């Protein structure tokens, strides 16, 4: 099939290849330099404001550590779902309740493992950034290995660039697959990405995050896991630029809700140079997720205040009711440790809170029962 002729505004070209031409993107930085629309600049300002609000409120709550962990796990679940995984936030919380020290289970379903791997990789990447490390190709390879641990497909290259061509099915029926560049072209393209990140980009960090994400997904350097690693890269880049003081915003939920548009907007950049449309979509995603995180944190804070008013006493039930935001998913035996009480007392606390409707049992089993804080989960999910 002959390559499709693209306009001069397209940041790359199609090259003849059987059975479909592959796309060869221009290396970064984008040339000529982008002229951002007024709408894009307004969205940058609005998104930046919303992110600032999240940073402001998140630092004032007593449950910030739990919120931080919960949002990372929600992001991990949403990112896995985009790739077709059937996994829920509750599944991740249940796993960690059963394995509090991070010990591995002998049998973990692949879909759950993908979410757990994402959580591990994102947490590790953020820790590296916080300790002063920069985003390098070596770090990306390391994170890729974490993402694909025990979930790789036969033939996948893990922790290194792919050695074969890949074809990405279009969400639009009748449209030919998108074929990223050849393995031989990956080294130079990814080197330009690394250089662009090291130089701190050319625009506002939110705009650069959109450019970096588009470029990474278009190059598609790995045989699998590119979507997950590319979305993880958004957060790491903003954190590395000092733009996210506390990473409480995660874009995967937005991308998952608009999965078809997410793919189409990036393809339109490749074929038409439709940068402002992609930036509008991307920035709106960050803006809306920041707004959601602010609202979620505000509601959790109100819930905490309500529990403190409704359970002001010194009984074990009152004490744990006020701690539900710190321990939103637990077993009765966990309360023995949390409250330093006997099993009998722990079971009484569970019965009291279940009667009050604050918690509910989720396994349906007679033994090994697990409980979640109903209103906390309603807000988080």
From TrEMBL:
Chain spans, region Disordered: 1-20
Pfam families: Fic, Fic_N, TrmB
Gene3D superfamilies registered for this protein in UniProt: Fido-like domain, Winged helix-like DNA-binding domain superfamily/Winged helix DNA-binding domain
Fido domain ranges (all copies): 135-284
Domain of life: Archaea
Transmembrane segment boundaries: none
InterPro entries noted in UniProt: Fic/DOC_N, Fido, Fido-like_dom_sf, Fido_containing, SoFic-like, Tscrpt_reg_TrmB_N, WH-like_DNA-bd_sf, WH_DNA-bd_sf
Name the UniProt record assigns to this protein: Fic family protein
Organism encoding this protein: Halohasta litchfieldiae
């Amino acid at each position: 099939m002959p390559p499709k002729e693209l306009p001069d505004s397209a940041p790359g070209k199609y090259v003849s290849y059987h059975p479909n031409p592959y796309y060869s993107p221009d290396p970064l930085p984008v040339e000529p330099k982008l002229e951002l629309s007024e709408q894009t600049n307004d969205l940058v300002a609005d998104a930046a404001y919303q992110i600032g609000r999240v940073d402001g409120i998140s630092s004032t709550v007593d449950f910030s550590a739990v919120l931080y962990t919960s949002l990372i796990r929600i992001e991990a679940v949403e990112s896995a779902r985009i790739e077709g995984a059937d996994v829920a936030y509750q599944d991740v919380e249940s796993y960690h309740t059963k394995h509090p020290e991070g010990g591995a289970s002998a049998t973990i379903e692949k879909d759950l493992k993908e979410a757990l791997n994402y959580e591990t990789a994102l947490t590790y990447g953020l820790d590296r950034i916080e300790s002063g490390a920069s985003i390098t190709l070596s770090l990306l390879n390391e994170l890729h290995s974490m993402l694909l641990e025990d979930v790789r497909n036969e033939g996948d290259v893990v922790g290194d660039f792919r050695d074969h061509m890949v074809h990405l099915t279009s969400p639009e029926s009748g449209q030919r697959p998108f074929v990223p560049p050849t393995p031989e072209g990956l080294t130079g393209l990814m080197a330009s990405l690394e250089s662009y990140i090291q130089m701190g980009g050319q625009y506002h960090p939110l705009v650069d995050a959109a450019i970096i994400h588009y470029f990474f997904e278009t190059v598609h350097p790995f045989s699998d896991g590119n979507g997950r690693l590319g979305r993880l890269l958004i957060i790491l880049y903003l954190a590395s630029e000092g733009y996210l003081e506390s990473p409480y915003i995660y874009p995967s939920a937005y991308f998952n809700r608009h999965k078809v548009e997410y793919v189409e907007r990036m393809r339109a950049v490749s074929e038409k140079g439709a940068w402002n449309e992609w930036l509008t979509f991307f920035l709106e995603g960050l803006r809306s997720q920041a707004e959601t995180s602010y609202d979620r944190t505000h509601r959790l804070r109100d819930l905490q205040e309500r529990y403190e008013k409704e359970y002001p006493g010194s009984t074990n039930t009152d004490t744990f009711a006020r701690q539900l935001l710190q321990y939103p998913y637990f077993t009765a035996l966990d309360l023995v440790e949390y409250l330093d009480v006997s099993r009998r007392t722990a079971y009484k606390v569970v019965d009291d809170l279940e009667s009050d409707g604050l918690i509910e049992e989720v396994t349906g089993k007679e033994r090994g029962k697990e409980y979640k804080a109903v209103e906390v989960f309603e807000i988080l999910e």
